[in-house]
Each structure stands twice: as C-alpha cells, then as structure tokens.
Design a protein that fits this description.
Among the domains are: about 40 residues; about 90 residues, Arc Repressor Mutant, subunit A. The two termini are about 25 Å apart. It has nine helices and two strands; from the N terminus they run H-H-H-H-H-H-E-E-H-H-H. It has a two-stranded antiparallel sheet with strand order 1-2. The protein is elongated, with a radius of gyration of 21 Å. It is mainly alpha-helical and about 200 residues long.
Length: about 200
C-alpha cells in the first residue's frame, strides 16, 4: 500500500493558500515532503514488481540480502572487507532489518520452508542458532540480483554522480531528523520541546 494516497500533488500556490488557514504549514517543507513520499512510492512499486516476478516479498528479499552480505564477508576480518561481519542469529537479523523478532521468525520460517536458508548451531555459541543461506538461496540471489541492480541504475540514471552524492547527503539529513523525532522523548525534556516535536 502506498505511503501517499495522492497521485497528483498539490501545486505550490495551493500550499501557499493552505498556509493562510494553517500557519504551521510551511509550503516549501510540505512540497518537499510530498515529493519525497511520492517518489518513494514509485521507486518501491518498481522494485516490488521485479520481486513479484521472482515470487518473493520485500521482507524475505531483505533477509536474503542481509545473509548474502554476511556470507560474502565470512572469514574476513572487518578491516579486510571494510564492513562488519553482518547478522547471523534471528535476533541480529531482526535488529538489522528493524522488525520484531516474531516477524523475523516468520520470515526465516518461510525462507527455510522454501529451502533458501537453514538454521544451524552458531559456531561461536552453541546455545544459539545461526541462519545461513543455502546453495539454493545463493543461486536464487544470483538469478535475481542482476535485474535488481539494473533497475537501481535505471532509476538513478537521470542524476549525475555528483547529484547522487548530494541526494544521499540530503536524505541522510532527513533520515537523522526522522530518527530523532521517532526516539522516545526524554523525561528531562521541557513541555515546550514536546510541543515543538508534535
């Protein structure tokens, strides 16, 4: 389901009119926000169609990608690869994906049922279970990823390398602000601070 249930975005002049009735409405902020959501919906829809063609959901694909990243770096020290070792346990996968452990259990269950992953005792702590890609899971990703990466490249094709870096920097700023707004409010915050967040 799309995040923004608007196909045609309001014109800037309409936002200016709306600001007369609602002084809290910042027209340029609203315009940028709506375009961000609209673009996100379209990009997500394009990627989702490709995944649907391969009979996999975004959630299951995300788990496979987390495990693929782990398997690519297994055996390397973080300094060698420049990356962390990656999640292995269901709890680590849940944290990395930003979902509950129950949700991750369901995703891993269906991936294991289809033969894409397997649970096995963790090599570092035998009391815990690790999740690993199976050869079938790796073969599936090798079939899917070329078109997935081509779609990414096509979507970003209108932007130059410099514009892409600028976009990443701008989105990172918005992401940080969204994370700050999502964080539980501190007990030491003043009422004024709570009002400014809401």
């Amino acid at each position: 389901m799309p995040l923004l249930l608007l196909k045609d975005l309001p014109r800037y002049e309409c936002l200016l009119e709306g600001a007369k009735e609602f002084p809290a409405l910042d027209p340029s902020a609203c315009e940028a926000f709506l375009h961000l959501l609209r673009t996100g919906d379209e990009v997500f829809s394009v990627a989702e169609r490709n995944l649907a063609n391969h009979n996999i959901s975004h959630g299951r694909f995300g788990v496979l990608m987390l495990l693929w990243g782990s398997s690519q770096r297994r055996g390397e020290a973080p300094a060698q690869s420049g990356c962390m070792a990656g999640p292995r346990t269901p709890a680590e996968l849940a944290d990395a994906a930003g979902v509950t452990r129950a949700t991750m259990t369901g995703l891993v269950d269906t991936l294991e049922r289809d033969g894409f992953v397997r649970r096995e005792p963790d090599p570092d702590d035998r009391r815990m279970m690790s999740v690993r890609l199976t050869p079938k899971g790796e073969a599936f990703l090798h079939e899917l990823l070329p078109t997935h990466f081509q779609i990414m490249a096509k979507l970003m094709a209108p932007l130059s390398e410099t514009e892409r870096k600028t976009l990443v920097a701008l989105l990172t700023k918005i992401l940080q602000c969204a994370s700050d707004l999502s964080a539980p409010a501190s007990h030491t915050d003043s009422p004024a601070n709570h009002e400014s967040v809401v």
